[in-house]
Amino acid sequence: MTEAAAELPVPPEQAGAAFGDRFADAVRYAELLADAGVRRGLIGPREVPRLWERHLLNCAVLSEVIDREVSVCDVGSGAGLPGIPLALARPDLEITLLEPLLRRTTFLEEVVKLLGLENVRVVRGRAEEVLGKLPPVDVVTARAVAPLERLAGWGLPLLRPHGEMAVLKGDTAEEELKAARAALGRLGAVDATIVQVGEGIVEPLSTVVRVVVGESPGGVRAATRRAKAARASRPPRNAGGRRRR
Ligand SMILES: C[S@@+](CC[C@H](N)C(=O)[O-])C[C@H]1O[C@@H](n2cnc3c(N)ncnc32)[C@H](O)[C@@H]1O
């Protein structure tokens, strides 16, 4: 055990409510972060004493804004935040952890296997590079990946029509949303709000920026790209104008 791992506090009472049946796995995940996560440089040693409040619980409460049985892509998952706490709290979700760095995807794959997370898969890549290679999802999540405007450019095109991006942000949420409004419109967003979640679980509450897209997530360019891809995948017409079987 590392020196840092010895600093991991006992789980707070609220962790039981947040993780329910998967509480023991949440404890195991906290231990993995505090030990291998710190040793491999995926999380700072100074985070260990506040792993529960600031990381596991802060992320798990994102589930309050996510519908049942939907698909989720966690962009820039890092050591699994918010994707892993979300998967533990919500076994009904199908979660893809998207992360470009090999060192991090290796850790994520180990965690998924150790915790038996059947609702999670790990994909190595950058959001802007996997566009069109992954099926569109209902929800994109992210925390600490990029300013909202840039993140929206990566995340919104991954959504299906009427999908939603739910981003954990800190004190800068309002400011970032204001700065991103015009870009969000160009990217196909039809609504953007800020909500607080985690009443009774985390203090201070977690701030979530919710961005909903319309018919054409990713804006005009993405819609054109999708239409082209759909045309290309259609079977060619024969001389009589009827489709070949
Ligand atoms: C500061 S870390 C945050 C990790 C985690 N979300 C958290 O809250 O602890 C940012 C992560 O985003 C990833 N990242 C950066 N650019 C990305 C992109 N274009 N697509 C997907 N992930 C990206 C990085 O590799 C890194 O793991």
Automatic annotation (TrEMBL):
Lineage top rank: taxon: Bacteria
Record localization: Cytoplasm
Matches recorded under Pfam families: GidB
UniProt region (Disordered), positions on chain: 222-245
Zinc-finger listed as a keyword: no
PANTHER family registered for this protein in UniProt: S-ADENOSYL-L-METHIONINE-DEPENDENT METHYLTRANSFERASES SUPERFAMILY PROTEIN
Function in brief: Specifically methylates the N7 position of a guanine in 16S rRNA.
Name under which the protein is recorded: Ribosomal RNA small subunit methyltransferase G
